[in-house]
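TICKET: design request
STATUS: open
ATTACHED STRUCTURE:
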C-alpha cells in the first residue's frame, strides 16, 4: 500500500485509498477543472473537500502542499519514476494529467502548443479578470460606491468573451473537433458568469451565441456533469 504519511495534508485529510490520485479541492471554476479532467481521463481518484469558505487552505497542512493557499492540489501516488508527486496550480495539474495519460492534449507538437496557449489564456486572463468582475459585481465589492472598478472588469470580461466568440466561430471546441484541456480550463469560468455571478444581462451574454453553444456542449458531457459537483459542497 502506498504510504502518503510524509505529506502533512494526508494527516488533515486522510486517504481511504492511498493508491489513487488524491484531489484536494472545492467546487469553484478553478477547482472543478481538476475533477472534470480526472473524470474525462477515467483515472481513479479520491476527492477531499477543502472548504475555502472556512479558510481551510490557510492551515499548515494544506500550505505544506501549496504554499500559495489555493485549490486545487493533488498528490499522485504513482508520479514520475513511480514516486508520489504533489502538485498545485490548476494549469500544471491539467497538463500533468494530460501528459500522464496521453489524452486531452494533441500529440502533434504544433497543436500541443496551440492547446497550451489557450489553456494559459484562461490562467492569465479569463480567471483573473472574470474573478475580479465577479467580486465587484456579485460579491463584497458590489457595496463599493465607486462603480469604476466593476465597470473596468466588466468591460474586460466582455472583451475576453469576444475573443472566445471569434475563436469558436465554425469550431465545436477550442481546438476544433478535439476536446482538450483548453476547453476544461475555460468553460467552467464562462459558465460561472451566469450560474454564479448572475451577470448575463450585465454582460450582454446573449450576444455571444457561439460561446453559449460551446458551454452547453461542454456541460452536457458526462464527465462535466459529474465533475462540476466534486467535491460536493455538502
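STATUS: resolved
RESOLUTION: sequence designed for all positions
ATTACHED SEQUENCE:
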Amino acid at each position: 500500500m502506498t504510504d502518503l504519511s510524509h505529506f502533512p495534508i494526508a494527516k488533515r485529510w486522510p486517504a481511504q485509498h492511498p493508491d489513487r490520485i488524491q484531489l484536494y479541492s472545492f467546487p469553484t471554476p478553478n477547482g472543478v477543472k481538476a475533477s472534470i479532467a480526472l473524470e474525462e481521463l477515467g483515472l481513479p481518484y479520491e476527492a477531499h473537500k477543502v472548504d475555502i469558505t472556512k479558510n481551510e487552505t490557510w492551515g499548515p497542512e494544506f500550505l505544506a502542499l501549496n504554499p500559495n493557499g489555493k485549490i486545487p492540489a493533488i498528490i499522485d501516488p504513482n508520479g514520475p519514476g513511480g514516486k508520489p508527486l504533489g502538485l498545485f496550480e490548476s494549469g500544471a495539474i491539467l497538463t500533468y494529467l494530460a501528459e500522464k495519460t496521453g489524452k486531452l492534449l494533441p500529440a502533434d507538437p504544433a497543436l500541443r502548443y496551440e492547446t497550451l496557449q489557450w489553456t494559459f489564456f484562461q490562467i492569465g486572463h479569463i480567471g483573473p479578470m472574470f474573478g475580479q468582475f465577479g467580486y465587484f459585481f456579485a460579491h463584497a465589492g458590489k457595496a463599493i460606491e465607486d462603480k469604476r472598478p466593476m465597470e473596468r472588469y466588466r468591460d474586460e470580461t466582455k472583451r475576453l468573451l469576444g475573443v472566445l466568440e471569434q475563436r469558436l466561430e465554425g469550431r465545436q471546441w477550442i481546438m476544433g473537433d478535439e476536446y482538450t484541456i483548453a476547453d476544461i480550463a475555460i468553460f467552467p469560468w464562462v459558465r460561472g458568469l451566469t450560474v454564479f455571478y448572475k451577470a448575463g444581462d450585465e454582460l450582454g451574454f446573449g450576444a455571444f451565441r457561439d460561446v453559449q453553444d460551446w458551454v452547453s456542449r461542454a456541460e452536457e458531457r458526462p464527465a462535466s456533469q459529474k465533475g462540476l459537483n466534486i467535491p460536493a459542497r455538502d
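CLOSING REMARK: The chain has a mean pLDDT of 97. DSSP finds ten helices and four strands in the chain.
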